[in-house]
Design a protein that fits this description.
Elements: H1 4-14, E1 19-25, E2 31-36, H2 39-44, H3 56-59, H4 64-80, E3 84-91, E4 97-108, E5 114-122, H5 124-145, E6 150-154, E7 160-163, H6 165-171, H7 175-179, H8 183-186, H9 192-203, E8 209-217, E9 223-234, E10 240-249, H10 251-263, H11 268-298, H12 300-318, H13 325-356, E11 363-367, H14 368-383, E12 389-393, E13 399-403, H15 404-420, E14 427-436, E15 439-446, H16 479-489, E16 493-498, E17 504-511, E18 535-540, H17 544-554, E19 560-565, H18 568-578, E20 582-585, H19 594-603, E21 612-616, H20 621-630, E22 634-637, H21 642-653
Parallel strand pairs: 12-14, 18-19, 18-20, 20-21, 21-22
Antiparallel strand pairs: 1-2, 1-5, 3-4, 4-5, 6-7, 6-10, 8-9, 9-10, 11-13, 14-15, 15-17, 16-17
Coiled coil: 250-284
InterPro entries: CheY-like_superfamily, HATPase_C_sf, HATPase_dom, His_kinase_dom, HisK_dim/P_dom, HisK_dim/P_sf, PAC, PAS
Domain PAS: 136-191
Length: 654
Amino acid sequence: MDHPADRRLQRLAALMPGVLFQFQRWPDGRTAMPFATDGLRAMYDVAPAEVVDDARALFERVHPDDRERFVQSYEASTSTLTPWEFEYRVVRADGRVEWHHGRATPERQPDGSTVWHGHIAPIDERKQVETALQRSEHAFRQFFEAGLVGMTIAEPDLRWLGVNARMAEMLGYTPEELRRLSWGDFTHPDDLPGDEANYARMAAGEIDGYVMDKRYRRKDGSLLECRLAVRCERAEDGTLARVFAMVEDISDWRRAERELQAQRDALEQQVAARTRDLEKARDAAEQASRAKSEFLSSMSHELRTPLNAILGFGQLLEMDRDLGARSRGHLREVMRAGRHLLRLINEVLDLAQVESGRLVLSPEALALAELVDEVAALTEPLAAPRQVRLHTAVPLALAVRADRLRLKQVLVNLLGNAVKYNREGGDVRISARPMTPDRLRLVVEDDGAGIPASRRSQLFQPFSRLGAELGSVEGTGIGLALSRRLVELMGGRIGVDDAPGGGAAFWVELPSATLAPAPPPVTEPAPAEPGLAPARVLYIEDNPANLALVEQIVARHPGLQLTSAADGPAGLVAARAQRPALILLDIHLPGMDGYEVLARLRADPLTREVPVVALTAQAMPSDARRAIEAGFAEYLSKPIDLSVFDTMLRRFLG
C-alpha cells in the first residue's frame, strides 16, 4: 500500500545523495533488501524491486576483490550486533568502477534474522582527493629527499621540522644533529645581521621571501659559500606559519671566479675546464628549475587571484584623469610587472597543455603576409623606444596551413625577441620563401650579438635564457620552448642560424597552403555602441578583493546596481529574492561550488532564465569548455580585462 508517509520518505530520500536501505540476513545465509530508495538504481544499476526478496543481484555488483571482505564485514556485525561500516568498490553495468561507503545499525528479529537500517553514499570524489594527496605527499617527499640542493622546513621560531640529506651532507652534520641547531649556530658572524634583517622583514609581512649569498661554518670548521633562498607560508591572520629554505653550494663557483679574475690570460685551459664544471652546475640548477615550473603550473589559480586585484584596479587607475604624472609612472611599472607575470603564467599553462597533449589546434589556410603585418604592428611599440626598425618582405601570394592564434603567438615571440636582444638602432628583417612545393620558410633576422653554435642545443629548453637572466632584458625563458612545441604540433620545424653580418636568424618551416578567393568587401556603417539599461547584477564571490574590484568596475555604469553574496547558499537566496538581470558567479566557492550553484539556479523557475557568467581564476581551455557545456552564458577568466568585461555587460544588459 502506497502510504503517504512512504511517499514523503521517498521524496526526502531523493534529495540525499546515495541510498537509504533496510538489509536483512537470515541464519541460513539468505539475504534480501526489503526497502531501498531509488538511489539504488543509480548506484548499482539494480531496481529496488529486484532485491526485495533476494539481494544476490546486489552482491554481484560488489568488486570481486572486495566481495569476501564485504561479506565478512556484515557477518561480523551480525555476530556482535555492532554497527556496520565499510568502504568498497562496485562494478557498474558499463564496466565503470566506483567507490561506495556504507553505514548501518543492526537489529535482531524474532525469527533470528538480522535487519540493518542504513545509508550508502558514493565516495569517488573523496577517494580521488585522498589518492591525489597521497601522490602529492609522495612526490614532495621524493623531491625533498632527492634534491640536488639543501632544503629545510622550519617553524616561525626557526626550529627545524625537516632537513634533507643534501643539507646535512653540505654542512657535515647528520640530519638529527641539525634539528637540534638553529641558523645562527653555523652562520658566519659577518653574514648573520643581513640574514636576520631579511627574516625580520618577512616576519613583518613586508616581503614573502628573499635570496642572499652567505657563508656557513661546517662541523669541521671550514667555510661553505652558499646561495640561500627563503620563502614563507602564512596563516590566515598573516603571521608566519612555516618557513622553507633552499641552500645551493656555490663554493666552487666563487672559487672559480676568484681564480679566473687572477689568471684569465695565463690559464685559458683551466678556465675551459672550470666552465665545464659550471655548466654541469647550471644543468643541475635547470633541472631544479623545471621542478619549480611544474609546481608553478599547479598554482595558476592561486596566482591569478591576486593578479586579478592588481591588474583590475590598475586598469581602473589608468582611467583616472586626475592621476599625477609620477603616480601614473608608478602605475605603468605595476601594470608592466603584473602583465609580465600574467604572461609567464599563461606561457606555463600553454606549455603544460602542449606537453600533456591537451592543446587543441584549428589549422586553416592563412595569408602569411597579412599575419606578419599584424604582428609587426603589435611589435612596433616595443621597437620604437630602442629605435629598432622592422622590415617585412613577405610575398602576398604565400599562404601556410596553421592555427592562426598559435602561429601568431609564435611570431609575436620571435619578433619580440628580435627587438629585445637587438642593438640600439638595429634592424629586424622578416622574410619568407617557398622551400619545396609544399613547404615554406619564414625567417626573422636581427642585428644583435647572435647565439654561439655551441649553446643552440639549449635554446629551446624551458627556462633556458643562456645567461640573459643576469642582464636587464626582461623574459620568462618559456617562449622559445613553447614556440618549438607549437610549431611541431602544426607540422613544422623551428631553428636558428647566423644572420648575415652577425645577429641571429630564427626560421620557421610550415606546410604551405592555397587561399580561397576572398569575397568582395562589404562596407556597412558601424553600429552605435549600446548603452546599459538600469539593472540589478548579483555577484557570488568569496574573495573580498575580487568583490571590491567588480564593485568599482560596475560603479562606472550608473544604471547598474551590484549586490553580492559570499557563498552558494546565500547567492541562491539572493537570486530568488532580487531576481537580478545578470549573475556573475565564481567557480571556487566554499562548500557549494559554482557548478552546483548554477545547477540549482537552472532548476528554479524563478531564476532559470537569468544569464549566469562564470568569473573565475581557472584559465585552461578545458575549464572554459566545461563551463559552457554546463550552461554558463559566458566564461571570463581572471585577471579581468575591463574591455572584455564591459563587452560582456553590453551583451547581456545593453
